[in-house]
Amino acid sequence: MTTNEYRIGETRLVLVRGDITEQEVDAVVNAANSTLMGGGGVDGAIHRKGGPAILEECKEIRRTRYPDGLPTGEAVATTAGDLPARRVIHTVGPIWRGGANGEPELLASAYRSSLGVARDEGLRTVAFPSISTGAYGYPTDQAAEIALRTVKETIETNPGVFDEVRFVLFSEADYETYRGVAERLVR
Ligand code: ADP
Question: Which of 14, 78, 87, 143 has the maximum number of C-beta atoms within 10 A of its C-beta?
Answer without folding.
Answer: 143
